[in-house]
Amino acid sequence: MAVWPSVSADVTVTRRVAAPADVVWHVLTDWPAQNAWMPMTRVRVLGLGDGREVGARLEAWTGLGRAGFLDSMVVTAWDPPCRCEVLHTGRLVRGPGVFSVRALGAHAAEVTWEEHLDLPFGAVGRAGWPLARPAVRFGLGIGLRRFARFVERLPRG
User: Fold this and answer.
1) Per-residue pLDDT tens for 97-111?
2) Is-contact 38 142, C-beta < 8 A?
3) Sign of the C-alpha dihedral computed for residues 119, 121, 127 and 128 taken in this order
4) How far does Cα 132 stand from its chain's mean position?
5) Is residue 5 part of a domain?
6) What φ, ψ does residue 80 adopt, rounded to 5°?
7) pLDDT class of 41 with cuts at 50, 70, 90
8) What pTM was estimated for this model as a whole?
9) In total, how many domains does the chain have?
10) Which range (39-43, 102-106, 148-152) has the least confidence?
11) Which domain holds residue 129?
12) CA-based nearest residue to 154, from 14, 13, 26
């Protein structure tokens, strides 16, 4: 019987944003508005409220039309304006994810997006992760680049 090596399914991307940390945090955690910067993804809050609290439930549909997947999540930690943790509970995407914001002075911040994935498809998922990881990291990087441009273009007054 073959033994598969342990494969890290962690992905982290970081991006500097030319906007105050509190603005960055507010835009980052406006779940339904994430479709403005997150590629091919629509997020909605389930239940009452705006999803900005521990226990809030979220759903994200990633794909084009009917071709895609549903990513269900629950907010497990909420520490504004610094850190939000979610637990992905879907059939395909499972495991913790983290958004964190660190102020870099009065007019800039650093956003870090971490995913710590439980790989689907057993041994096939573990074997394929070294090929999939760069694509996942690339996609998250595109999302954060779009996020930075989106926030930096917002009117401030």
Assistant:
1) 999 999 999 999 999
2) no
3) negative
4) 17
5) no
6) -70, 145
7) very high
8) 0.88
9) 1
10) 39-43
11) 10-152
12) 26
Residue 1 within a domain: no
User: For the chain, what is the total number of helices (H) and then of strands (E)?
Assistant: 2, 7
**Helices 21-28 & 122-152 angle (0-180, nearest 10):** 130
Phi and psi at 70, nearest 5°, equal: -95, 130
Using only C-alpha atoms, the chain has a radius of gyration, in whole angstroms, of 16
Report the residue count for the chain.
157
Q: Which amino acid is at 2?
A: A
Are 16 and 116 in contact, with CB atoms under 8 Å apart? no
For the chain, the distance separating the N- and C-terminal CA atoms, rounded to the nearest angstrom, is: 64
Q: Which two tokens stand for residue 24?
A: 């960055």
Token pair for residue 37?
């910067």
The answer to whether residue 3 sits within a structural domain is no
- Helix (H) or strand (E) holding 94, with range, is strand 94-103
Q: Classify residue 16 as left (phi > 0), alpha (psi -120 to 50) or beta.
A: beta
Question: Is residue 22 a part of any domain in this protein?
Answer: yes
